Amino acid sequence: MAVQVDHPVFDGTTGRGDHGGRRTHIIRLLRDTKEPLTVEQIAKRVGLPPNAARFHLESLVDSGLATREAQSRTTPGRPRVAYMGTLPNQTHERAQGYRLLAEIMATAVASNNGDAGEWMYQVGVEWGRHVVARKDSQEPVDETEVIERLADKLDALWFAPEIVEESPRRLVLHNCPFMESTRRYAQVMCQLHAGMINGSLEEMGSATRLVHLKVLDAGHKCDGELARTTARMPRVPLEIRQKPPYPA
Fold first, then answer.
1. Is the pTM of this model over 0.70?
2. Is the peptide bond before 247 cis (omega within 30 degrees of 0)?
C-alpha cells in the first residue's frame, strides 16, 4: 500500500499552497511517497480524471522528473503501471547533498566575487537560454504564449509559479527549491533565478522582462513585476523582506 502523502510538506522543495498547477502537486506527491503510485491513486489525490493524470505523468517521465514501472499482478490482466519521482525524498542523504552543494557554491560565489549579484544574474541568463527551446525568428511572438511557457518551465523546476493578470502583470513564485541557501544569500540566489527568468524570456524572443523582484516570507515566496522593455539589465532590482524562518 502506498504511503499517504496528502499532508502539507514545507521543506523548501514544495510550495506552501495550491499554486503552481496540477503538475507541481503531482511532482510533490511523487517525490514524497516511498512507494510507486498508480495513475488512479494520483488522479484521486489531485482531483483529476485518470486520463488527465496520465497525460501529466507521461509528460513528467518525458522531461526526466518521473519514472514508470510495471507492477506485478496476482490476478490475470495487464500489469499496472506506477510512477515514482526521480528526485529523492527530503530525508534522503542525496537530497541533503544537493542542498549542501548549493550552499557551498553560493558561499563561494558570495565570498570571491566583488559583485556577486551581478555575476550570478549573468550566470542565470545563460541558464535560462538553455532551459527553453530557441524561438523560430520567422514567427511572430505571442506574448501570452511566452508567459505560459515560462510558467510551465518554472512549474517543472518547482517554483510553483502564479501569473497575476493585473497592471502591472506579476509573476509570483510560491516556492524556492533552495530556500535555505536563499535565506542566507538572497542577493546571490535570487539574482540567479531572476537571470534565469529573463534569459528564458530573451531566448523565446519576448519583449517582456522581470524588472523588479520582492523577496518575501524568508525567501520562500517572491513577487516579481513583468514589463515590456528592450533594455538589457545588468541585474534585477531586489526588495528583500526577511522574516523569521518557518517552524520545523
1. no
2. no
